[in-house]
Amino acid sequence: MRKVVARADPQGHDRPDPGDRRTAADATTLDPASPGTGPPGADAPERSGPERGGSGDASAPDAARRLHAVMELAKALATAHTLMDVVGISARQARLAMDAALASISVWERDSGHLRVLVNDGDLAEGEEALPHAETYAVTDFPEIIDPATWPTTWSNSVDEHDSDHERVVALRRRGRHGCMVAPIMVEGRVWGELYLARNAEQPRFDAVDAEFAAVLAAQISAGLAQAEHYQRIEKLAFTDPLTGLANRRAIDARLDAAMTRHYREGTVVSLIVCDVNGLKRLNDERGHDVGDRLLERFADQLSACSAMLPGSMAARLGGDEFCVLAEGFSPDEVVAVAEDLCRRALRMHDGEGVACGVASTGDPVGPVTSADRLFRLADAAQYRAKGSRAIHPVVAGRGQPPDLTVSLAGGDAPVPTESTPAGMPLRDRRRFRGALHNADPGRLLAAVLGALDEREPGRVHRADTLGRLEIVADTFARMLDGVAWWISYVPPHGRSLRTVRYSIHRMTGAPSSARARFEETATEYALHAYPASAEAVQGGGFVQEVGDPGNDPAEEDLLLVGGYKAMVVAGGTNAAGGWLVEVFTDGRSLPVHGLAPVLRALVAVALTGGASLPE
Fold it and tell me: pTM higher than 0.70 for the full model?
């Protein structure tokens, strides 16, 4: 085994922050004109190989080809949000860039002590799979990976080396390959896994120049993995209730839409249990919200246990004291039996007063269920009747004496309190978010904005109203930060300028009124090329910029200074209607915004899902 020293920063300093507006390519300096800092292979002879690494002209020098390869990898990784997206793109681009016959990416699973191959790209030998199900190797067979003293060195092996018993050499011979190179992939200062590259006998042997370039590629892959893992954590928060750990309203909406599609296509029975925890308001008023939260957590545990009786079902907290279970493929009687058990469990809970429980199923005589909203309204109406009658058993839509009052109630709008509302009539008690009015914690921000979307969307914003949904995101996000203002801009497909389509000023700054000229009318347009950071954000990125920070985009810095702002959080994305940009501005009174670009980016992505509509 040959150890070829080619180091990437073990602390990950060459990886951009996921919230930074720069692409990953910006984080790696590759200047073909600068000796010592240029791309690997700047002085190496031109190589031939099975593929040219996406460089186009085969006569291009290695330096330019490899610089192009790094840029292509960075651009591809910018659009990857899942781990498998990242490893698939990375393996292919690394193979092409290195003129390798095979590229593999493996992850070090520390709990089992194995390297698990996630993807193989290229010429597969007998027994190899592009996406292996169980290709693993004991990490003890490769001591260089587990020795921190060697991190992040790049290694190479070939079949003509003296160390013929080394596991990698044995594997090379078995698979008919001549040489390999391994670059550890570092994430947050630790070995995450490895990039493995192999060449056949007719290809040149890996050398020190190759080792340097492999280290650059591994560092670029590290940046993509860090971004994907962060995005997945944010995505999980976006679809999880932070108090109970159950799914939230947004997750249940997406799952219900998919379930109803299967119902229309295949006739699958879809059922909903909707329940409201009794006595929560009294408990909160008398003993405080902490005690009330503990009750909700205990009920969530019972709901999860009951959901397990219907394998494949989803338990969720809709908001406040309302919960539900979504089940597919079970008979209505099976679902009602689980709802009965849930009611019994709730009555036995400490500090609890039971639950009001309603059930609706496409398998019961409820009439045509033409939409997911219709099934939800039926279950909600059943729960409403259970609450009003203080029932200790579930009320089931479609099983009352005709005409069924639950089905009739579901046909109208939900009750709205008025001066003539009868005493004791149950009404919704949905809190948009808990705690202080202003909070910059990422989890609280996500909960607040998603809660606002879930609460306001059914009555005030249609699911296909893109601008309306983005307004909820911008306004709630700005108010949580005690921000100054927000703007939403739009660019049509293939357009070259952004048009401000909606904005709100929460308070004035000390800047002169003329400084706001750009935003005085919603028809204001500005060229994308004049604001490069914003242009990048429209494609699905995001950034935070504070006045005076080194490396600020000059155009965005001028905007902050002229407007009298201290900082801005920007994120964007696209849907079928075009590109969208949300900008939230803050001043000295606002909460700090450092690190919040991924949060706003995730929220904008959520708002852009579903139907799309053009701005007014």
Answer: no
